[in-house]
Amino acid sequence: MAWLDTIIQGILLGGLYALFAAGLSLVFGIMRLVNLAHGDLIVLAAFLILMLVSALGLNPFAAALVAMPAMFAIGWALQFFLLNRTLGTDILPPLLVTFGLSIVIQNGLLEGFSADSRRISIGGLESASVALGPISVGVMPLLTLASAIAVIIGLNQLFYRTSLGRAFRATSDDPVTAGLMGIQPKRIFATATGIAMVVVTIAALYLGTRANFDPTIGPARLIYAFEAVIIGGLGSLWGTLAGGIVIGIAQTFGAAINPEWQILAGHLAFLLVLLVRPRGLFPRAVD
Amino acid sequence: MTDTAVTLWRVETKTKASATFAIVAGLIIVLAFAAPLFASRSVQQDLFFILTMLVLAQNWNLLAGYAGLVSVGQQAFVGFGAYAMFALVILGGLDPLIAILLAGIASALLAVPTAFFLFRLQGAYFAIGSWVIAEVVRLALAQWKMLGGGTGTSLPREATRDMPALKLVGDLFGVKSSGAGDILTYWLALLLAIATIGLVYRLLRSKQGLGLAAVRDNQEAARSVGVDARRMKTLVYLAAAFGTGLCGALIYVQKARISPDAAFSVVDWTAYVIFIVVIGGIGTIEGPIVGVIVFYILQNLLADYGSWYLLILGLIGIVIMLFAPRGLWGLFAERTGIQLFPVRRRLTGGPVPSSKKGGPHG
Torsions phi, psi of A118, nearest 5? Predict the structure, then answer.
């Protein structure tokens, strides 16, 4: 049964990677912007939650709820005042500005919180588990996957059932024509990044409660998120979940063979998909 | 102007400023080669650092500024070149100088399969993809137990001490082997920097360079007039891998100690390099030269401030990208019209005044 356990742990880990990736996928889908600081923003949100927990004595879940509007505001402002200036046909400005931002956030966090490893404590939940038949599954990993699915359902509802979602899709298709219809693309973009930061906060809650984190781990989270998006196929949120699960399973299998191979196995799975299905498993977008 | 005058049209890129600069550059090169005669060892080591960063910056600039391939994974080639050199010296018993050259070739060979994967990704995805490749190479080499695995290893002292070239330099200057090592690596870095700038400049002035600029400015239009964009980009990618790997090997001959985390550091070999190019001016040969000087000064000013240094460097990079995307050299060239490495073709010698400025260079 060891292999079944490995697969289930991998699927659950994939939920975390899907949460990392959902925000990245959302921002790319609407404004074709790849935010190289995405991973560092996740770590920033984790430190924000940690601060709220330790300063106000809040429960981590409540702290995440408090952090959400703050992260929304950060995302909104970041997009409106900084990233909107970089959008255009040239891919250099957004890449280099977000790369610079990644370095700034990392070193700002190092300055503020030192390089020490931190963890957000959630008491008994940390080690709680439930038995699924012969296999016992951690409550937190299960909650992570459930949250990932809830986030994807929520984002899909937002996209296809609300007027804001219609504005998102319209702006994504053609910002100029959308502008003629009374939509302000710059505000739409800012709102989209704000929502992405809310998703980032949820991802940060699970990142911070499940394992140790420090200011330098952001880029690796960006890479996992990116791999999940590419494996799933651009433009498909359910594909992103599948991509996250593929990496999760590859990593747990790699780790089962040799703990040093965990991360490498995830990357190799990504390269393999890129080799046989360059457009991902469930491609939707043309670019 | 009389009608009888024979009008001789010429296409040239030379300007008055560039002709003067060529003489100055020649003098600087002579002076730089003579530096070990009068410069202390710490100055030589600083110059070595500046020159190797300049080589990395020129290579990245060739990729991002001219071929539109924004890579954040060039540390893959620095690290791979360094590890290849270590393997050739420690396991193969080769002379480090030969190992450096072979390490460059090994890096170019590594670039063949990575190009195969990366060229499936467009634009921004190419950037993160290159980072993934660098991670894969780092994690794979960390498994190589004979080279120290995850903790790394040192270059055996006798391997560098017994180099014939080192003995020659040592006898020439009457210094011990450690001093001779600094002189030798400094000279090699100088040679590599001159060769890199020379080759990049030559490429940009050639027909291929014109094609490259056309692809960068408008890929579809360039392809419609027969430029093979993919082939050009692949060639540039391989050339940059060669140059970066060679430079990585040279850096680690001087460091003489390697570990996967240091050799594949995204901050040391990519973030610094990107900031150098962005601050100096992307898409020009002068830019990285200006950038590396600014970078060196900033590093010395802010060395005591730890992570504030990188934070400030990041902020400067962002501000420059937003408000002066052509960098410091771009600002200067815009105001003065001076180009030290002109690549813009101008028609001269005809009856029409040739002082009109053309479009963006390239």
Answer: -120, 165
